[in-house]
Amino acid sequence: MTGNHEATVSLEGLSVAYGDERAIDDVSFEVHRGEIFCLLGPSGCGKTTTLKTVAGLESPDEGDVYVRGSRVTDEPAYSRDTSVVFQEWALFPHKTVLENVEFAPRMDGESRERRAEEARSVIETVGLSGKEDAYPEELSGGQKQRVAFARSLAADPSVLLLDEPLSNLDEGLRREMRLEILRIHEEFGKTTVHVTHDQQEAFTLADRVGIMRDGCLIQVGEPSEVYSEPKNRFVDDFLGETTFVEGTVSDGCIETPVATFAADAEDGDVEVSLRPEEVFLSAPEPSPDGGGSVSGTGEVIKRIDQGSIVRYHVHADSLEDRLLSEYSAREDPGFSEGQTVSVSVVDDPRVFDESGRRVT
Amino acid sequence: MRGSFRSSLDLLYDKLSGVSAGALVVPFVVFETVLFLGAGVYLLRVSLAEPTALSAFEEGTWTVSNYLDVMTDEYLMGRLSYSIRLGAVVTAVTVPLGFVYAYAAWRAEGRRKITLLSGVLVALLISIVIKVYAWVILLSPEGVINRLLVGTVTDSPVSLLGNSFGVVVGLVYSMLPYVVLTVYSVLATLDERSIEAARDLGAGRLRSVYEVVLPGAAPGVIAASVVCFSWSSVAYAAPVFLGSPSERTVAVEVGRLFTQSFDWSHAAALGVISMVAILSTAGAGTLTYTAWRRYM
C-alpha cells in the first residue's frame, strides 16, 4: 500500500460480448498506484476477459480503459504500458531464458549490450542466475513461472497483469510463489492486477479485492472488509466455507432451528450464514458463558484434524445441514465422533433475504 | 462365439501393446524398401546398361557412357536447369502464399476455419489433369480472363498460355494444398498465446509472427518447401498442357526417352541425374535456411 491513491488503471463501464453472450457487463473499478488488486471469482466469471481488456488483447464493446490517466481503449496491446504474465506462461519455446526476457527491451529498440544487461539483472532478481541459456522446456514449472515474471518485468510496464499465474503449480510451490510475488512486488513496486479463483491466494496478495460473478463486479474492498461485510450471499458463500441456516423474521427477531437472533429486519424468510469460526462447541451442560447465543445440542459426526486446526462436523438437532466448527489445535476442545455437545453460535451473524441481498 | 472373438481381440491388443512403437512401423518400412528402394536400384541398374536399338536396353552390360552422354547433352542439361529454376520460382511463390493461408486457417475459429481448411482439401480431391484443363479454359486467348481483359485493359488478348507464366500459375495452384496442409499441421502444435505474449511485450502484428510463429513453424515451412520444390521441378502435366516446348521439364524429357525413343538407359540416367540434382538443391536450400535462422 502506498499513501498515494492516484489511480493507475481505471475501467469505466466496460462490457465485452461474444455474440449474444456477455462476458463482462458494465465493469468499473480503479487500481491505485503501487497496490495489488485481485480480481477474484469462479471460473467463467469474466475476470480474465477483464484483464485482457486492460492489456489490449481484447477490445471492449462499451466502456473505456485508462492507464495513468490517459485513455488507451483503442490502443493495441504492443503500445500499452502494461504487461501480462499468462496463465500457462506462454513463454517463447524457441528462445532461451535470456532471449525471452530481453524480448521487450529488444522490441523497444535497445542496443544488444544494454538489453542483455537489463535482462540479466531481472533474471538475477527472480533467482534464475545461471539459467540464461536454458530453453523453457528444460525448466521446472516454478522456474518457467519466474521466467514469465522476468519477461514481463523487463518490459518495465506501469501495470503488471497476472492471469492466474500460479494455477499450474502444485500446492507447495504455489505457496512459495505467492510469497515470491509479494517480494517481487516490494522490490519493483509495480501496480498489479492479479486474477485468481483462489480465495487464499487473493487474500494473501491483495491490498484490495474485487469479487466477480457472471461478468459483473459485485464488491470491491480490502480483504478483511469483504470477508466480514459481504454485500450478498454469493460473496459470503464464495469467500469461505459456511453453512446457510434458514430462518424467519418476525417482530425484530430471527428464528432459526439453531438459535434466535435479534435483528432489525423486515418480516419474511431469510438465510443466516454461520462460518466455522462462528460456531462453538462445549460440553453438554449449559456453560455459564458460552460465547454467544446458546442454541441447544447436537452430535459430532466427524472430527477432522488438519494439524494446525481441528474441524468438527456437527449435526445439530432440528437442522438438516451440518454445521462446521473450527478451532486452532491449541484450543481444540477434544470431542470425539458420536459425542453429544452443546452448540452455540455468535449473536450477530450475517443475514440474507430470499434474493441473496444482505439484510443485517 | 462373440465372446471368444472379443477375447481374441483383447489378446491381440495385449500383444500389440507390448510391442514397441518402433516395431509398428516395420510393415511400412518393408513396403517402402521394396517399392521405393527396389525400384530405385532397378533404375540405377538400367542407367548403367548399354543402350540398344533392338530393345529397351542391353541386359547384362555395364557402362557409364549414358551419364556422360546426358551430361554433355546441352539440350538436356538446359532442360534440367530450367526445371530447377521453375521449381525455385514455384516454391518462392507457393510457400509464402501457403504460409499466409495456413496461418489464417490456424488463427480462424469455427465456421471460417472449417471453410478455409475444406477449401484446400477439396482442391486435393480434383484430378491434376482436370485442374490443368481448368486453367487452359481460364488462360487461353479466348478464355475467361482474356475476355474480361480485352476491351477493358488491353486491345488484344494477352498470352497467358504456352509460356512460363501459365506453367507457374498451374503449378502454384496444384502445389498450394500440400504446402498449406504441411504448414498448418505444424502451426496447430504451437501455442497461440505466445503470439498474444509477443504483442503484449511490444511486437506489432508482423513482428510477432516473425519472432514467435516462424521459428516454431520452421520444420513445416522447410518440409513444405522441399515437397513443393521437388514436385514442381519434375512436373509433367502442367508444363505439357499449359506451356510450350520451351517449358518442358526433365520429367517430360525422361518420358519422351522412355516411350518415344524407347531408350531406357539414357532415360534412367537422366532420371538419376535429375533426382540427385534436385535433392541436393533442396538440401542446400534447407541448410542455408537453418543456418540463416540460427544466425538471426
From TrEMBL, chain B:
Instruction: Identify the InterPro entries for this entry.
Output: MetI-like, MetI-like_sf
**Which keywords, in A-to-Z order, does the entry hold?**
Cell membrane, Membrane, Transmembrane, Transmembrane helix, Transport
What Gene Ontology terms describe where this protein resides (cellular component)?
Answer: plasma membrane
Where would you find this protein in the cell? Cell membrane
Gene Ontology biological process: transmembrane transport
Q: Which PANTHER family match?
A: ABC TRANSPORTER PERMEASE PROTEIN, INNER MEMBRANE ABC TRANSPORTER PERMEASE PROTEIN YDCU-RELATED-RELATED
- Name recorded for this polypeptide: ABC transporter permease
Q: What organism does the UniProt record list as the source?
A: Halorutilus salinus
Q: What is the lineage of its organism?
A: Archaea, Methanobacteriati, Methanobacteriota, Stenosarchaea group, Halobacteria
